[in-house]
Amino acid sequence: MLNRLGLRAVIVLIVIAIAFLYLSPSFTKEFPSWWSNLFPTEKIHLGLDLQGGIHLVLEVDAIKAVENHLERVVEDLKQDLRNNKIRYLELKRDGSDKIFLTLLRPEDGDALQDMLMTNYPDFDAEYTGSDQSQPAYSLVLIQKSKGRIMKMAVDQALETIRNRIDQFGVSEPDIRPQEGNTILIQLPGISDPKRAIDLIGKTALLEFKMVDEENSLEEALKGNIPPGSEILYQVSVDPKTSRRTKIPYLLKKRTALTGEYLTDARVQIDSQYNEPYVSISFDARGAKLFEKITGENIKKRLAIVLDDTVNSAPVIQDRISGGKAQITGRFTMDEARDLAIVLRAGALPAPVKIIEERTVGPSLGKDSIQKGFKSVIIGGLIVILFMMIYYKISGVIADLALVLNVLFIMAGLAFFGATLTLPGIAGIILTIGMSVDANVLIFERIREELKLGKTNRASIESGYGKALVTILDANITTLIAALVLFQFGTGPVRGFAVTLSIGVIASLFTAVFVTRIIFDYLYGFGKMKKISI
Q: Among 330, 351, 383, where does a domain finish?
């Protein structure tokens, strides 16, 4: 029996040692070089409400992603129709899930059906034309494929935003999808919320387009835009007066090259003007395309377009090989860095808009921490004093279990990489009460057994045995409720559920296992003959 007691004591000591190991990074950053190879280095993450920052809910325009997909399919169709010698009169996107196609010859209908069945299984072809000489078809994107594209757009947006935030240098971000096409973003400790929001929401679609120098810009500005061309603007800001000037460009609609071939984007300093610019590098395929475009258009202007805004439109002086280019402008260092970040992380697959935004100041977060921990200390001290006065030495044992319970909860947060929030502190306070409640049940059972005239050991055995079922029932049902809250709750609700779940498990361990060891040692094998309860 004594050997079993010693083994259980060793288990408790090992658990306490592990708890201190996981908590140590939260109290100090000074560790020897070998520490990170053997022991944990992650500290407890503080939530937005405790250290300040920004809370955003973004909505991804997933329908726009479907429309972009259809535009690409239209371009692929044009190529396939030419390859199959199928002549068409009209081919365009129709709404957000259809492509409209009119053939020139009725005899091409069968060849079209075969081609669609082979190359475009995501579309159902519906005959819609009334003119037999020029049959018209509506290619409808099937619902399953549309849903897949929309989900992929949200997933890609989530990954792109996460990459941008990681490169921006935000510690402990919370980024996760929510119902519908929304994404929840919490960035604790942000000192410049506006810059972070601009970085997150920028689509960052980089395109290279040829300037249309064959047609008149003046005529296009009057409304006579040539087919296959468009007007985009370059925005220039005077650094002295902050006056914004919009310079129009007539560009070819067709994109010669996109940012999908980028492999790197870095900030460099112009040695002549001492101004920052962004140096970009293409992969092997992108380098070949860029060399081909510049080689075929010497002395013509190539516009660099970012999110439908012309950045610059330099004249191509010679063929550019090596797959490198520059994006220049009157950038500040922060603007150049942010542009490099979004280009490296990639363009968002669809535009996003902010549907909810909250900023928590660091002073408010500091105040929340102080009040939260003050409530834990005051609540804990009241419980500790009550247990000591009412249950005497047994109450002191329960108080020791209570302290260990809080230690295990904090260590559990560090172990799972969970975030401590203000509702999480409320969960800790609730767990303190629940932990004591388990000890109260045990102590009252022991009292009843002592009144019946049983020995100390028999009273302890019976008290723990009879109370165990009730304690397990109460804690398991609470744990189930906490897990449901964690699974289906969001934000503060999840923070409460995390600490409550860890606390329930910790309180079971301390109330049933730890206190039992102390009772067995003091009254079973120790010199104390009378239970102080």
A: 330
Q: Using CA atoms, how far apart are residues 86 and 109, in angstroms rounded to an integer?
A: 9
Whether residues 117 and 257 share a domain: the answer is no
Token reading at 29: 């950053």
> Dihedral angle at the C-alpha atoms of 243, 246, 247, 251, nearest 10 degrees?
150
- CA–CA dist 312, 404 (Å, integer): 64
pLDDT-based confidence at 527, cuts 50/70/90?
Answer: low
pLDDT of residue 172: 65
Q: Is the pLDDT of residue 490 over 80?
A: no
DSSP state of 211: B
Q: Are 353 and 61 in contact (CB under 8 A)?
A: yes
CB atoms within 10 A of CB 147: 12
Closest listed residue to residue 494, CA positions, set 434, 418, 429: 418
HEC string for 77-130: HHHHHHHCCCCEEEEEEECCCEEEEEECCHHHHHHHHHHHHHHCCCEEEEECCC
* Confidence category of residue 483, pLDDT binned at 50, 70, 90: confident
CB 50 within 8 A of CB 365: yes
Q: How confident is the model at residue 364 (pLDDT cuts 50, 70, 90)?
A: low
pLDDT tens per residue, range 278-326: 888 888 888 888 898 889 999 899 988 888 888 888 888 888 888 888 8
Distance CA 155, CA 62 (A): 10
| Partner residues linked to 174 by β-bridges | 186
- Provide the mean pLDDT of the chain: 83
Mean per-residue pLDDT, 35-51: 76
DSSP secondary structure letters along 213-274 = -SS-HHHHHTT-PPTTEEEEEEEEE-TTT--EEEEEEEEESS-SEEGGGEEEEEEEE-TTT-
Q: Which pair of structure tokens corresponds to residue 405?
A: 């319970």
Helix residue spans in 28-54 (DSSP H): 35-38, 48-51
Q: Report percent pLDDT > 90 for the chain.
A: 6
Domain total of the chain:
3
No. of helices (H) and no. of strands (E), the chain: 15, 19
Residue 248: predicted pLDDT: 93
- 396 lies in the same domain as 310: no
Token pair 């506006």 in the structure block, residue: 194
Determine the pLDDT at residue 171: 63
- Residue 161, domain member (yes or no): no
Residue 35 half-sphere exposure, CB side, CA atoms within 13 Å? Answer: 13
